């Protein structure tokens, strides 16, 4: 399918090499099996982790400790190609690099970095990010998970987290908890006594992804488990900004996969003696879908260059996450209509992407949260208070 605005012409040769390498990996290792994984509700994260590490996409935007140290647009392009395979695949990579590795890299001690980052970059260790709770989603300041220091200096962690990608297959969890000194982050090996991570089942979205609850029952951690470089919500919110940047790129891949499927179908499906793509109403649908996809691509590329310049602001990330997820979801829904009854089968990728995007719309900031973030930027008035 033609890229109408030729946006990839704006990529550097290295960025195009990354695009091609990740796209080839997805075509070879993901697309042949992902519909079956989705139907069965499984994701072979353990098996894929080392391959993704060899591909170089785990923590690829971080420097040192075995990470590739690539630019923001390269990371975005990789996320786009991963999510063209499935949102669950991009979520795995995004959680590993932006939510688990990033806080250790940004706020961790040298000992924590040396212990975890090289293994995580190689896919030898899997991480997860514990922020959302059963009763606290959009308001993380109200979290109930807490950590208290006893006279020995150890931390005792108690509480629960929910909707945690990778939780049940992780080797380490970055967990945010209330302490007497404010919210702190903790590096928690998942084999620590008192830690458990049962998987959440019966999902109709992100079925090819591991989603878990985390429970902490008097989990004893050494003083060295705390992330020393940050206190307060600034820590977890900065991690979310990293991950949201990957999302605003990633959903373009899901939208592109849906549009490509709709175009191919419209050119071959015959009704009333000609392909349905020859009818004006179908062409209008395809044209609007292409416009939305290209606009999302322009937004992502612009925000990627702002990030590389060091000037990207949280409200701009909210703009991108809000606009691009909505665009991708609208494209998926319209593509479903083009495919008619075939649009609801896993023979085509459309319904899988559409269901996945319903979760992407909500996680790492709901539509409402991002709208209010933009409202605050426009008015200077805080609707969250």
List the helices and strands and how they pair.
Blueprint: H1 13-30, H2 34-40, H3 45-55, E1 63-64, E2 67-68, H4 72-85, H5 87-107, H6 110-121, E3 127-130, E4 146-149, E5 155-165, E6 172-179, E7 182-189, E8 195-196, E9 211-221, H7 234-268, E10 270-271, E11 274-275, H8 280-309, H9 314-339, H10 350-360, H11 367-379
Parallel strand pairs: 3-6
Antiparallel strand pairs: 1-2, 4-5, 5-9, 6-7, 8-9, 10-11
Helix pairs in contact: 1-4, 4-5, 4-7, 5-6, 5-7, 7-8, 7-9, 7-10, 8-9, 9-10, 9-11
Write a structural description.
The protein has 385 residues and is α+β, with helices and mostly antiparallel strands. It is built from 11 helices and 11 strands. The strands form 4 sheets. The chain has a 4-stranded antiparallel sheet with strand order 4-5-9-8, covered by helices on one side. A 3-stranded mixed sheet has the order 3-6-7, with helices on one face. Strand 1 (63-64) and strand 2 (67-68) form a beta hairpin. Helix 8 (280-309) packs antiparallel against helix 9 and helix 9 runs antiparallel to helix 10 (350-360). The longest helix has 35 residues, at 234-268. The mean pLDDT is 97.
């Amino acid at each position: 399918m033609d890229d109408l605005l030729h946006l990839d012409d704006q990529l550097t040769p290295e960025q195009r090499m990354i695009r091609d390498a990740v796209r080839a990996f997805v075509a070879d290792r993901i697309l042949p099996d992902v519909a079956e994984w989705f139907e069965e509700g499984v994701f072979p994260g353990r098996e894929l982790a080392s391959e993704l590490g060899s591909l170089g996409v785990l923590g690829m935007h971080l420097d040192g400790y075995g990470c590739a140290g690539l630019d923001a647009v390269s990371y975005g392009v990789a996320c786009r190609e991963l999510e063209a395979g499935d949102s669950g695949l991009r979520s795995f990579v995004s959680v590993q690099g932006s939510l688990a590795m990033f806080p250790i890299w940004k706020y961790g001690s040298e000992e924590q970095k040396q212990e975890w980052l090289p293994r995580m970059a190689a896919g030898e260790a899997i991480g997860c990010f514990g922020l959302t709770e059963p009763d606290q989603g959009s308001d993380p300041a109200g979290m109930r998970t807490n950590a208290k220091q006893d006279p020995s200096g150890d931390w005792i962690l108690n509480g629960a987290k929910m909707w945690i990608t990778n939780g049940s297959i992780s080797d380490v969890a970055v967990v945010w908890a209330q302490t007497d000194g404010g919210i702190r982050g903790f590096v928690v090996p998942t084999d620590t006594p008192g830690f458990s991570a049962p998987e959440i089942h019966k999902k109709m979205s992100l079925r090819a992804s591991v989603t878990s609850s985390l429970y902490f029952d008097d989990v004893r951690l050494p003083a060295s488990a705390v992330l020393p470089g940050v206190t307060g919500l600034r820590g977890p919110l900065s991690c979310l900004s990293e991950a949201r940047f990957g999302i605003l790129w990633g959903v373009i891949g899901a939208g592109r996969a849906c549009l490509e499927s709709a175009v191919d179908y419209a050119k071959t499906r015959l009704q009333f003696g000609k392909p349905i793509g020859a009818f004006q109403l179908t062409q209008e649908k395809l044209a609007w879908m292409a416009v939305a996809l290209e606009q999302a691509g322009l937004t992502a590329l612009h925000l990627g260059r702002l990030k590389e310049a060091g000037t990207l602001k949280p409200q701009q990330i909210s703009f991108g996450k809000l606009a691009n997820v909505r665009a991708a979801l609208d494209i998926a829904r319209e593509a479903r209509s083009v495919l008619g009854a075939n649009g609801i089968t896993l023979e085509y990728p459309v319904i899988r992407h559409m269901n996945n995007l319903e979760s992407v719309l909500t996680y790492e900031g709901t539509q409402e949260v991002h709208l209010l973030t933009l409202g605050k930027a426009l008015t200077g008035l805080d609707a969250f208070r």
